[in-house]
Design goal:
heterodimer, A: 354 residues, alpha/beta, eight-stranded mixed β-sheet, two-stranded antiparallel ribbon, 15 helices, 14% strand, B: mainly alpha, 72% helix, 0% strand
């Protein structure tokens, strides 16, 4: 029989090898579980309610570039941007001499159930920008929006174009109704009144939705694959830090989540121009400053087709798209992204500094 | 300080030895032990005696590893019993199919997708509790839709509404379970076909290890799941599941609110009302305050009104 399946001897060897690796993994993973995320020193420079603005301490001589404000998503914790020394976009920025600020939205609780997108964008985000403008006596900041934070940044830049020097969007959904967007398909028939009536959406529920986008890979395969690490402490620590981040999801304020799902997922408001914040319509054509749109070509959460349409929606004559051959998470932590993305962002900003 | 517990603790060595013995026994037996969970149970029990107990993440790991080793066992069994390639492929596929049942069960346990109590069971319990043997009200009868009457009319209606919502939620869950069975069946077909092709000497890639076969299984499952999950029917089903679950929750919340009022405990509605007032007040304050203290300093000073002498 011309069989390409493993013979009994190979099978025994493989199982025994798996057992050895499993033992080593089990012995080592307890220590790895305590690996803490975050590696760069930072100071809390402003705060309001549960929101904090951090400024990172410089690592090198300043490059003389306008400060960069990173606006992260609400759905996960922003320490992913500075996970560990060799997996930190922020650290690469600091090494390039950038002055980096980061918004931490905190963990909303029951007191925040009526916090809406107007509060987040016209309130907290606006106040963070204002703080940086006041501190540095500048006209506008470089705004870098990540994922959902990119959508917020687009709204903000459209409402306050004079306060944004350059806009960078990273793995940012713009067109929420593309054929590849599975999450969007599931959201279309949701009864959002009923959802909001139940209060904040727990981070645990949100995670279960994310897991169900690729259930076999995310609930099975990755835990089998990690056994290959054996007692490689470094690899196990990387894994456990990621694991901690993935499941460290804040609850979502009911009002903000309701608006986000309705305005962006159901009504595709950035494309149709139907989003209104604080009584003002969000028109992406008002964004005329330089725009750098970075997206991941293997992204299952924000498929490239959701990000690419930004080109035709903004009013900027200086628009650059950068596709990186990684997945959504890989954009923050993969070696490829670590090598290319921060360097390209720093260079792109430097070219537009004068 | 470096953690050197692995050097001083004899546990891992013992574990390795135990695992090897278990694996040898397991591989030698044509029928195999009932399951392979013993390897994990041993570790979990040991970890549970440690300070703080077994880390919660271990359950995730052991679930995945048990299933992976289940594939190895399936492979060992089929190798011994099945002669033809197609038979071996079918043998794997049949065992892999049970994974879907387990996954389906796990999906049902996720937050917000928790199975609600069965109204039928509630009714039976109620009837048994009342000792009812009246004709037409046997313990197996379905909960009837009585017309709500009398002093407790509103309570009866609330109860009926609740049981209807529960029944609806369970109906949606049953539809979802059928989708998972479909996904399982289609995955099995796809997996068998690819494995048969590999056995027939036309592999798209090497299948010379359990890991390669396992990865193929996952790949097939994700492909089938992806095609189903992107369909409008599945999208509607997921929305129905969320909507029906939220409707049950809202009804439960309404009941809790009614109880809270009875005991003069603040209700969610009252807390919401206060939060709305605070939000409104803050909006008023924000509208009156300058954008930032520094910005207010930069504003041109207003001239003092001259006081006429």
């Amino acid at each position: 029989m011309n069989s390409s399946l493993p013979d009994p001897q190979a099978l025994s060897s493989e199982i025994l090898d798996f057992g050895r690796r499993l033992s080593a993994t089990l012995a080592a993973i307890g220590g790895a579980a305590n690996a803490r995320p975050g590696c760069s020193a930072k100071q809390r420079v402003w705060g309001e309610d549960k929101v904090a603005l951090y400024r990172y301490e410089p690592l090198t001589k300043p490059a003389g570039i306008t400060p960069v404000l990173i606006c992260y998503a609400l759905v996960n914790r922003p320490y992913m941007m500075d996970l560990q020394i060799d997996r930190s976009l922020i650290r690469r920025f600091l090494e390039a001499g950038l002055d980096v600020y980061l918004i931490d939205w905190g963990y909303p609780d029951g007191a925040d159930r009526f916090t809406d997108l107007d509060d987040y964008i016209n309130g907290y985000l606006h106040h963070c920008v204002q703080h940086i403008i006041d501190t540095h006596q500048i006209a506008g900041v470089n705004l870098l929006g990540v994922c959902q934070g990119g959508t917020f940044s687009l709204c903000y830049a459209a409402l306050y174009p004079e306060r944004i020097k350059n806009l960078i969007t990273m793995v940012t959904p713009v067109d929420f109704k593309t054929p590849e967007n599975l999450l969007s398909k599931w959201v279309q028939a949701l009864d959002l009144d009923l959802l909001a009536q139940g209060g904040n959406l727990s981070g645990e529920s949100l995670n279960s939705i994310y897991l169900s986008l690729m259930p076999f890979r995310l609930t099975q395969q990755k835990y089998v694959d990690i056994v290959q690490a054996g007692d490689d402490q470094r690899q196990l620590e990387n894994f456990m830090r990621m694991e901690r981040w993935i499941f460290d999801s804040p609850d979502q304020a009911a009002a903000a989540l309701r608006q986000f799902l309705q305005w962006f997922y159901q009504e595709n408001g950035l494309v149709t121009g139907s989003v209104t914040l604080g009584g003002r319509r969000v028109e992406l054509s008002r964004i005329t400053q330089p725009v750098l749109n970075i997206y991941a070509s293997k992204d299952h959460l924000v498929p490239p087709s959701a990000s690419v349409p930004l080109a035709r929606l903004v009013g900027s004559a200086d628009y650059t798209a950068l596709a990186v051959d990684v997945g959504h998470i890989g954009m923050y932590v993969s070696a490829r992204a670590q090598q290319d993305v921060p360097t390209k962002i720093a260079a792109w900003l430097g070219e537009r500094e004068s | 300080m470096a953690d050197n517990s692995s050097q001083t603790d004899p546990g891992p060595g013992t574990l390795l030895q135990m695992q090897q013995e278990l694996l040898q026994r397991w591989l030698k037996q044509s029928s195999g032990p009932a399951d392979v969970s013993g390897m994990f149970d041993w570790w979990l029990k040991r970890a549970a005696t440690a300070e703080g107990g077994a880390p919660p993440f271990m359950r995730e790991f052991s679930n995945a590893w048990e299933q992976y080793l289940g594939l190895g066992r399936a492979l060992a069994q089929s190798d011994a019993n099945a002669a033809d390639p197609a038979g071996r492929a079918r043998s794997f596929a049949a065992i892999m199919n049970t994974w879907f049942e387990e996954l389906g069960a796990r999906f049902g346990q996720l937050p917000n997708f928790r199975s609600p109590p069965d109204p039928q069971q509630w009714w039976q319990t109620l009837m048994l509790g009342l000792g009812s043997s009246a004709p037409g009200l046997g313990s197996t009868a379905s909960p009837p839709e009585f017309a709500a009457l009398g002093l407790t009319r509103e309570r009866q209606e609330a109860w009926q509404r609740f049981t209807r919502l529960l029944a609806n939620y369970q109906e949606v869950q049953a539809k979802l379970a059928r989708q998972w069975i479909h996904i399982g069946a289609e995955t099995t077909k796809k997996f068998s076909a690819r494995l048969s092709a590999a056995e027939g000497g036309t592999p798209a890639r090497s299948m010379g290890s359990i890991k390669a076969i396992y990865d193929l299984w996952i790949e097939c499952a994700e492909e089938v799941y992806g095609s189903v999950a992107h369909s409008p029917e599945y999208g509607q089903l997921i929305a129905d599941l969320a909507n029906s679950s939220n409707a049950v929750r809202a009804e439960q919340q309404r009941e809790l609110e009614a109880w809270a009022k009875q005991f003069d405990v603040p209700t969610r509605a009252e807390v919401n009302s206060l939060h709305r007032q605070v939000k409104l007040l803050r909006a008023h304050l924000r509208a009156q305050a300058p954008a930032s203290p520094k910005q207010s300093k930069k504003r041109p000073m207003r001239r003092r009104p001259r006081i006429a002498k």
